[in-house]
Amino acid sequence: MICNPPRRPADHTQQTEVADRENHTLWSFAPPSNPAYPTVVKRQVVQVNDKIYVATSMLCTGPQTACTHVAQEFQALNQQMKQTVRPAP
């Protein structure tokens, strides 16, 4: 696994990301300063036949509105990711 330095998502709070390249998985952990804390999001790129999917799981125990915001942010990121990933030949 590779631990990437914190990045700044749209809401400008830092989060920690851990990439598991072997399993095509990215884990994102919200910091205590994020209103949705504690939150973890797992995204995994999956190919089924000739289609690419981003399987996403989220565990968020913060306030519902903050968790909804995080879910919407990751849905948008997943759409961007799907546009850059191509199926294997």
Termini Cα gap: 25 Å
Average pLDDT level? 82
Largest sheet: 5 strands, antiparallel
What level of helicity do the residues show? Answer: 10-25%
Beta content: 35-45%
Q: Structural class given helices, strands, pairing?
A: alpha+beta
Low-confidence stretches: 5-12
Rg (CA only) = 13 Å
SSE order: EEEEEH
SSE inventory with pairings:
Elements: E1 2-7, E2 15-20, E3 25-29, E4 39-48, E5 51-60, H1 64-84
Antiparallel strand pairs: 1-2, 2-3, 3-4, 4-5
Polypeptide structure, described:
The longest helix is centred in the last third of the chain and has 21 residues. This protein has 89 residues and is of the alpha+beta class. The chain has one domain. The chain is built from 1 helix and 5 strands, in the order E-E-E-E-E-H. A 5-stranded antiparallel sheet has the order 1-2-3-4-5, with helices on one face. It is elongated, with a radius of gyration of 13 Å. Helix content is 24%, strand content 42%.
Quick overview of this protein structure:
This protein has 89 residues and is α+β, with helices and mostly antiparallel strands.
Features:
single chain, 89 residues, alpha+beta, five-stranded antiparallel β-sheet, 24% helix
